[in-house]
């Protein structure tokens, strides 16, 4: 009996979507030389193997969107600068990230950043009473919470309108 959870899902629509952009059409000329992987600083410290991402993207392997590897790229563009075919590898990875978010694949850490940003106006939680901010706030008589979009209700409404328009909450529940 075949274990369906182990099957790899292929779809030409993923590689086709990458090829819509003129620059990204160059992905089809990838010769899998591995130069992108060898010059990747993130690959030295993470599981990122850029060549593998390119191969999966080119083949239309759907799982590339749900794997954490596409989020390890630091967008330094070393891969693009050294690619013998001048494939914009970083742009391909950014496109894959956009596709992943559209399908609801986003690392929990980034989901938390978005939730915090939407709920407080800050990308990261503010420190406690003993934080550097609290000491600076007292010293300079600043507001308890630094001003954000939450201080301007009309701007906050506009932000939520934009997020609702792109159906962001349906993909990544944030409130």
UniProtKB/TrEMBL annotation:
Annotated Pfam families: Fer4_8
An annotated GO BP: methanogenesis
Record carries keyword rRNA processing: no
UniProt keyword Iron-sulfur present: yes
GO cellular component terms listed in the entry, alphabetical order: plasma membrane
UniProt xrefs under InterPro entries: 4Fe4S_Fe-S-bd, 4Fe4S_Fe_S_CS, CoB/CoM_hetero-S_Rdtase_csu, HdrC_iron-sulfur_subunit, Helical_ferredxn
One MF annotation (Gene Ontology) recorded for this entry: metal ion binding
Keywords, ordered alphabetically: 4Fe-4S, Iron, Iron-sulfur, Metal-binding, Methanogenesis, Oxidoreductase
E.C. code: 1.8.98.1
Pathway as given in its UniProt record: Cofactor metabolism; coenzyme M-coenzyme B heterodisulfide reduction; coenzyme B and coenzyme M from coenzyme M-coenzyme B heterodisulfide: step 1/1
Protein family per UniProt: Belongs to the HdrC family.
Entry protein name: CoB--CoM heterodisulfide reductase subunit C
Organism: Promethearchaeum syntrophicum
Species lineage: Archaea, Promethearchaeati, Promethearchaeota, Promethearchaeia, Promethearchaeales
Gene name of this polypeptide: hdrC
């Amino acid at each position: 009996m075949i274990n369906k959870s182990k099957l790899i899902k292929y779809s030409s629509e993923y590689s086709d979507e990458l090829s819509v952009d003129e620059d990204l059409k160059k992905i089809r000329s990838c010769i899998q030389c591995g130069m992108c992987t060898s010059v990747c600083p993130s690959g030295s410290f993470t599981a990122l193997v850029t060549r593998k991402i390119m191969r999966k993207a080119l083949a239309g392997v759907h799982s590339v969107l749900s794997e954490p590897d596409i989020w390890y790229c630091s967008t330094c563009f070393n891969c693009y600068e050294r690619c013998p075919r001048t494939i914009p590898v970083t742009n391909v990875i950014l496109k894959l990230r956009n596709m992943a978010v559209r399908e609801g694949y986003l690392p929990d850490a980034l989901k938390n950043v978005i939730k915090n940003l939407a709920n407080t106006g800050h990308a990261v939680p503010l420190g406690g009473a003993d934080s550097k901010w609290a000491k600076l706030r007292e010293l300079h008589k600043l507001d308890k919470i630094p001003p954000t979009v939450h201080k301007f209700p009309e701007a906050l409404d506009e932000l939520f309108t934009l997020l609702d328009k792109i159906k962001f909450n349906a993909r990544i529940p944030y409130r």
